[in-house]
Design a protein that fits this description.
The protein is mainly beta. It is built from 3 helices and 18 strands. Helix content is 8%, strand content 52%.
């Protein structure tokens, strides 16, 4: 009995020590808004919906860190999409389509003075660097040209490339990512995702490299990536650049992205510019403009104009209202690549959108 009590005491001390050196955080965003979209014509003339994830995609997750000593830390992150308008969780991806509990991120890795090395399912390079220069701060992800096209997130367009089992390329499964610390305000990122197909490591691969720079109020980032299809016979090349300036009276953000397939010659480019203006201690106004162009195998242009007003009730809760307009050069059909996807409906070439909602961080 005495030996058992001593063993339990030692075990308790070890568990207490491990707990003191480790930390696990539950976090998330719950965002929902009421949206009214009015198309100029077509069968879907107008609609009113309650939509999740307007300013930021609703999500929940766990992240943890353990101090291993000598400046080395072990980390993990599990994160999934929340569809709080219906109570669902996870976005279906892949072919055949499947829903994962942690569809946004599922990683484990090490971090230290050398930077951070993570393995698992994670964002492609550029989302956390070029993406931070998005003109409207990655709001309206379901219709944002940067999220859909610059981030290779339209499965109908990019479904055959990369290691996401036939889904969009925004996130890559079976991947290894390295992000360096800043050296003289400059850092780099490297990433490789494995398609895990028999016969060749080139099949369904993703390879990317990025660079990011930050000093004072100015920041910039660039990224380049190559993706292969399931037979490694087709390649998608993508590159993007973003810059932002944060002043006391306003902030400017701008991005440019281009991606092209080597077989069809299809090329899609996205240019965006936006400004944030704080007009009161709790009120910020945002204006953003995007131009999306499709060339090569077809020709079409699309523009979006968005105005957003945000009111911070607290550091964790924000109310917002937005007005947006989108238009395309041609009437949208069910069989073409829709450059105003999710905004302009089939049978129309323009639409207006009004949204108001609330976002809460936890």
């Amino acid at each position: 009995m005495k030996q058992t009590l001593i063993a339990l005491a030692v075990l308790g001390a070890c568990m207490s020590n491990a707990s003191a050196q480790s930390a696990v955080t539950i976090y998330g965003i719950i965002d929902a808004g009421v949206t009214r979209v009015i198309n100029d014509s077509g069968s879907n003339g107008s609609r009113t919906t309650v939509e999740a994830g307007q300013m930021q995609v609703s999500r929940w997750g766990f992240r943890g860190e353990e101090d291993l000593g000598g400046g080395l830390k072990a980390r993990f992150n599990l994160e999934g999409t929340l569809l709080n308008d219906t109570g669902g969780a996870g976005v279906p991806t892949g072919t055949p389509s499947a829903t994962a509990l942690f569809d946004r991120e599922a990683t484990v890795g090490l971090a230290g003075n050398f930077g951070a090395l993570t393995l698992g399912r994670q964002n492609i390079l550029g989302i956390n660097s070029v993406g931070m220069a998005d003109p409207m701060g990655l709001a309206f992800a379901a219709t944002s040209p940067n999220v859909l096209f610059a981030a290779l997130n339209s499965a109908a367009v990019y479904g055959g490339y990369g290691a996401n089992n036939g889904g969009s390329a925004l996130r890559q499964s079976n991947s290894i990512k390295y992000v360096s610390p800043y050296w003289h305000n400059l850092g780099i990122g490297l990433m490789r995702a494995f398609g895990e197909q028999p016969g060749s490591v080139q099949k369904n691969k993703y390879e990317g490299v990025s660079a990011f720079y930050h000093t004072g109020p100015f920041g910039a980032a660039a990224v380049y990536a190559r993706l292969k299809n399931i037979t490694a016979s087709e390649e998608l090349k993508s590159w993007a650049f973003g810059a932002r300036y944060t002043g006391t009276r306003f902030s400017l953000r701008s991005t440019y992205a281009s991606n092209e397939t080597d077989t069809t010659g299809r090329k899609i480019t996205v240019f965006g510019v936006g400004v944030d203006v704080p007009v009161a201690s709790a009120v910020t106004l945002t204006g953003a403009v995007y131009n999306t162009r499709h060339t090569g195998d077809a020709h079409d242009d699309s523009q979006q104009y968005i105005a957003i007003a945000k009111y911070a009730f607290s550091k964790r809760t924000t109310g917002y209202a937005s007005i947006g307009h989108a238009r395309t050069d041609t009437v949208v059909t069910a069989t073409q690549i829709n450059l105003a996807q999710g905004f302009v409906s089939v049978g129309s070439d323009s639409a207006n959108r009004i949204t108001t909602g609330v976002m809460h961080f936890f």
